[in-house]
Amino acid sequence: GTDEEDPRVGRCVMSVQAQCLAYLPNRFRKVAFPDHPEATRDEVDAAARHIVDFTLAGIRGMKGKRPAEG
Known about the structure:
mainly alpha; 3 helices
């Protein structure tokens, strides 16, 4: 595992949170994605599956890499 003090841990948490918040109704989403489907139960489930798959692939892709400076 990765040490919880590794800055990548917090960045991953913020990335997941940002992905979830992107699905909430907001002005940017309405302009950028005007045809985005309504938040039905099926759409919420599909979005959650996407966020999990996308995030886990990204975390796996970071394995063995050094933390970014910053």
